[in-house]
Design a protein that fits this description.
two-stranded antiparallel sheet, globular, Cytochrome p450, alpha+beta, 38% helix, 252 residues, 10 strands
Length: 252
Amino acid sequence: MITKKINRGCIGNEEEQESADILSSYINDPDYADVELLHAMLLAFMLAGKDTIDVTLLWTFYKLTQNPKIVSIIRGELSPIALHKIDTGMGAMVIFDPEETKSMVYLRAVLYETLRLYPPAPFERKTMAADNIMPSGHEVHAGETILISLHSMGRMEDIWGKDCRDYNPHRWLLEGSNKPRYEPSHKFLSFNSGPWICPGKEIVVIQMRTIVATVVWNFDLELVKGQSIEPKLSCTLQMKNGLIVKLKKREI
């Protein structure tokens, strides 16, 4: 059963979430009384995350090959679970279950930091339903379209500080602790914001967290030299030339 996670406009504070069944919530919504519309919406939930997950994982592994200290911290967070699996004779290859990675706060921070610098959907488009005045003082009118560059927002010093271009997962943690730092969702728009927050957010995070945990624990990653790593101009922030890495089985 697909679960809908409702986040009340914050990032990094899971205590403010509620759960509801996606199918039931849409069936009971009069706006989705049309069966074909409901069918299309459910297919979107099943398929829409595919490309965005692929893109985010690609950029995450790329950044991890450049940051061995971050890899060490992730492994330290995974160590109690992984070593227990090894001690109980579950095989040389350690596979992490989604429930086991739930408490991995730093690993979640790594994914959020990737999404900040490399948002899979680099632009957000909004069409004005009525005349309004933006917080900046700019007047906007019904029917006008506003384009928001999430890619640029993630690199703005006014929003993220002087180290805005650095890959630093610790910015998502409270200073001196391993607890998540509150960040308003309108500052970090990879999952949209407010009532439009992505209902599949937690499903996506769980999938990526489980994949990264399994790969990082079991393998050493080495970036093949001579590659040209650059984004491709497309609907999703793909790598123009792909990514080639060497995987070497770790000796635990």
